[in-house]
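Repro:
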Amino acid sequence: MSHYAQLSSSFHAFMGLCSILLMTLAVCFMITSLLHGFSRKSQWIGGVLCCLCILFMQGLCDLGRDGSQKLSPTFLAQLTGSLPWIAVPGLLSILALFEGLFGFSLYKQQKKRLNPGAIKESFDALPDGICFARQSGVPLLINTRMEQLCSQLLGTRLQNTNFFWHSLQVQEYNKKIHNISTGTTVTLQFPDGTVWDFRRRELSLKKDSIWQFSACNVTQQYLLNQKLKQQNDQLNQVNEHLRLFSYEVEKVTREKENLAARVKLHDEIGRALLSFRIYLEQPGDKRSRQQLVPLWEYIVSAMEQGISPESTDSLDKVLTAAQTLGIHVEGCSKLPLSHSKGSELLLAALKECINNTARHAHGTHVYLQISETPDRICASFTNDGTPPSGKIVEKGGLKNLRAAIAKAHGSMEISSAPAFVLYIEIPKGES
């Protein structure tokens, strides 16, 4: 097989040109790995490839120069010329393969690294607006969302953040944009209904400090706050109605107690006068003063100190008070009117259902169903208001009602779906 030195000069020139191209590519790869801070392994590989390409190119160039100028061949020229002619293209192919693999490795590493373009692309993908600027107001980095918001506010691109923040503070921007609040946080409502919070804070660096501006979409929070405000207003109205309801109940109770006391006093005085008339109609030897003295002592004491009325039925006052809240009670005709513990508990349950219908359900009707067994009274209470949104937590009146029913050896159940139902059972004969 012929040696490489025995081949034609044109073949030598072609191989030399290929070696120069490979050397140039190797040098570019090595410089890229150094400038972009790739791993030390990549830098070493790039350096070795570069050295091999330079040495191989130098051998080919020395061989061609020495042959043309009839100079003494150098060591690299002798070594290259003594190689079989097929070895030179083979070595060049091997070097080209290694350089291709090395270049592909650098490309993969570069794809995994963050660069300014990737950072900007990530910032532009954010749903909120963000901007970093120098203390002088010159923007350093701004994403697309902040640019859009600034354009809607000022009609121009964001060129100076200090001017932009001053415009937000003094409300010098598009008149179609509604200002909700101004302070350390500026809240604005745009014509499309979205609500944005604009904030500014200072970030301290090693030798300097910069401003960070952010714009967050708080539309959902704003709508929820507005809904909560409306619900609070409605709750305040219901509380005011309940206050009036309690006042009317107390007023009716006092009036009925006073009336009951006056009626009882009237009856007692009438009974005393009738007894005295009978006493006067009796013969003198059959009269007994001892029968009249205790009665008249009771009447005199009652007139001086007042008389306590006996326990009276309170259904009328509960229904009267319910009317003041615009609530109609249906099914109370079967409500026991006896002065037993059971009737008191039924009335307490009815009053609690009226309160809850007005306070929570916003209904206008309370429905009462009563049935009796030989030993128990069963009653269910419901309304036409809004069903509870979840499980009912017993507190206040419901908690006290359950305790009173349990003390009377009864039972109480509450269901919230599909509608509010209060079901109680009370034994008969309990006092």
